[in-house]
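Q: Hi! First time doing this. I have a protein sequence and I read that you can turn it into a structure. Is that right? Here it is:
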Amino acid sequence: MYRITTSDYFIKHSKKFFQKHPDLKEKFRALFDDLAADPFQPHLKLHPLKGKLNGLYAVRLTFSFRITLTLQLTEQSIILLDIGSHDEVY
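A: Yes, that's right. Below is the predicted 3D structure, encoded as structure tokens:
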């Protein structure tokens, strides 16, 4: 199991995000559970980012929305950094 934590920015931004998209709360809960169990499950589509976000990863919440995160394999921890549309997050 991976330990998942959130940044202060993620908490603030996710509150606004879920006010606009309350229908995605249940999908986020399922994604959160799957990340904690194994972030490398193929359906999560975990992928490394490049450019200014080099060293970070992202997963798909939906086709339009992403979550950026850091993944520390040695400590088996995940830090959620941001949530939003493709253009907002990247």
